[in-house]
Amino acid sequence: MDPLKLALMVGVGAIAGTIAARVAKGDNFGFIPNALLGIAGAIVGGYIFNFLGLTPGKGIVKMISETFGVDLPLNIVGMIVSATVGAIIILIVSGFVLGRRRKNT
Q: Are 88 and 20 in contact (CB under 8 A)?
């Protein structure tokens, strides 16, 4: 795998995992757990958005590029949004599963 793509994947995962942890739990888990959560969230979120036929962040990168002259990958905002949504879903589902399991023991 291209090292730049790997770094982008880990970076997006860390951002998405951190946002999701803050939204769903009110805290964060640390860099590595957040990155892994975000990468897993990207898989879940990507599947959901593809299934629904939605493209999150469409046009935002173009606006940023035109306004600030910053060249970002065209789908970076969509990647962060879909990974964050997927990570939040993972945290909510795991909270239900683990919460029920704790109550039963």
A: yes
- Given a cut of 90, whether residue 93 has pLDDT beyond it is yes
Determine the angle formed by the axes of helices 76-104 and 31-52, rounding to 10 degrees.
110
Q: Where are the beta strands (DSSP E) in the chain?
A: none
Residues near 47 by Cβ (< 8 Å), separated by ≥ 6? 86
User: Encoding tokens for residue 94?
Assistant: 């795991």
State pTM to two decimals.
0.81
**Nearest-angstrom CA–CA distance, 38 and 35:** 5
Residue 8: both structure tokens together: 């982008």
